[in-house]
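Usage

Read records sequentially. Each one opens with the input sequence:
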Amino acid sequence: MKFADAQSDNTKFVLEATNGGYFIKCAVANYQGKAQYLEVYSGYLTVYSKYDDSDASIYTFKLDNATGANGTITAPEGGNSGNSGNTGNTGNTGNSGETGTITGKLAASLDMMGTTNLVSRTTTQTVYKANNITYTNDKASSQTDNYDQKGTYAARAYQSSTIKIEYTGMVAIVFTLDDFTDGKYLTGFDGMEVAGATISRNGDKVTITFASATNVFQSAELLKQVRIETIEVYTAN
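and closes with the structure output:
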């Protein structure tokens, strides 16, 4: 987080009233028509589409009086600052791995909705490419291609498929998955082990962090089908 000299669409936030407090909402910017909210994810502050209204812990912050290089921050007196008490809470991961921490910077992203960035699609392989990111999905035994990607659907990767991501100098990858129905297609990476990588999931976000920068990530076989909305790659600061 940093202080901005001037306000822009990405730095203007408003308070959205909720039961017992407020969400911190990006006033103008949205992603794929969804409003964006400030949250704690993988141990740092970021902005994503709201995942779960029933668990406000990752959207909850406690404001204390503080003095730093940018001046004094004073918490409101006598006001309801929300039902917090969970400063630094990384949220509920919903899987067996620890939530990864990204120490790099966002370098590029690949939109996997529809066919805009689709390079090729057959019954055995699907390739997407944009912004120097190449995604390759090799399907182990499927006899059908990803026919439902011709509209605005998320890219589909079947059970037992392997996924390869190529980008120079990656220190982390974040997949945003399509929940579809009741988390049906969110757990394909759960429990996966890949040498040199740590894989974890927080709701619909799968985070892969690397022990050292790499140009290629090759997954093990997926446990279940996943549907991918976006891929974000991070490089060293």
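Summary fields computed downstream for this record:
- The longest strand covers residues 162-177.
- Confidence is low (pLDDT under 50) at residues 76-100.
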